[in-house]
């Protein structure tokens, strides 16, 4: 348990430290100082209100009308100060939260995207799940709970010192008979409050400890369910065509059953915790009266002294009971920290793998050829897929890669792109080569059509006239008037239209080396022929390497390579494509 706590503290420090220690963090520190100062200001106002209790209730006891109304004015001033401080403490706290969250979100997004960690995490099981939830939800919860719990603990500590001194002074000395004599206990109410809080803290920790793991699982199950809903929405057409509603409904119900089952476990544990905590707090209301009453009835203190003592006892008890009252939040917070820490470690592992030389070695050679040498391609489980693949592509030539399904063509495509980590070998590109890889399913985001055409460059990298012209050339003239329209284009366009957009991107980027992995498979043969003729005409100096199964692709390429076999020249008619077109 001790080692676990040490690990958690180390993880928390690693997660928290960077924002406050980075260069230029003075603004954040100044904001934190202001929030802390206001928090301490609230404690000071509470101390003044505690003193006010004495004067106010003494005025009531003595029926002193003048002092009574004067104390009401004093209370008005203290209440106004408390309200103003509380408002700005909350406002600046929220300002600090969003600034910290913005910094953490940018940092985690950068780390997640660097060295294609987002892709590597998806390929292998590195102990992380739902990165979207960890970045969007867990970072927000971490900033919120860290500041609120930290400030709450600070307030509790300062209140304990401040009101502990007051309670020590007001308690006097309790004389207890012992072995024929008496034992004097100075500040006895402080010791009673301390014993009461320690007993409560120990019991609440024993009762609530399972909540940490339960909250961790709850966040995971919630994220899995939400992700399944998103996947269903994104693939609604495929599900509908399969008539897969029953299967999807069963899967969603199972995932939601995980949420419900774990939630019941949390409910039962929190019910037990609430039974104890509510009883503990209710007893705490009357307990100080019982302890202080003997001195009041003995005439040692007046009503004001009694109320001040009870108020101070309550503040000390609240301070000492901070752990009891905040336990459920602490459990959620710890689960959040552990999820973020696991995510960061997974990212670090993925980046370390990227920097360790896994995958092909990409180099800029001196030759005018794109060359792959001794590429060994494996599956993620270590199974060999393609051994010792070597091939070269000259500028301006067109090469077709063929082979049966499952032979590893698409995986080789990823290896040549440098994104497949389970391979070895060397890929050498010409100096300052412009290389573009088109997958079978193009990526289309949410935004303007202009942004989709210019992707991954900025949306203003090409003029509207150029974009409209390339849309017309690719058979998408009906979209020319919709360049500025914001849509979820992956759902708006058919598979064939999406592949036409990918071809339009290639024409706009003018790559010297264009790799296409069945990038026209959703088109009919006539449309495919028109697009290949367009590529050849518009990119005469570009080397086009295609992966495909259709025999109709043969006439658009000068040679073919069957994956796992030697290269073969195509018939002479393929070299006279322009004449045939």
Please indicate the count of domains. Answer: 2
Q: Examine the coordinates and then state which fold CATH places here, giving the name of the CATH topology of the largest domain.
A: ABC transporter transmembrane region fold
Shape: elongated
Name the CATH homologous superfamily of the largest domain. Answer: ABC transporter type 1, transmembrane domain
Q: What structural category arises from helix and sheet content?
A: alpha/beta
What is the strand content?
A: 5-15%
CATH architectural grouping of the largest domain: Up-down Bundle
Mean pLDDT: 84
Radius of gyration: 35 Å
Distance between the termini: 75 Å
Number of helices: 20
Biggest beta sheet attributes = 6 strands, mixed
Helix content: 55-70%
Spatial order of strands in the largest sheet: 8-11-12-6-13-14
| Poorly predicted segments | 571-581
Kindly state the number of beta strands.
Answer: 14
User: Under the CATH scheme, which class of the largest domain?
Assistant: Mainly Alpha
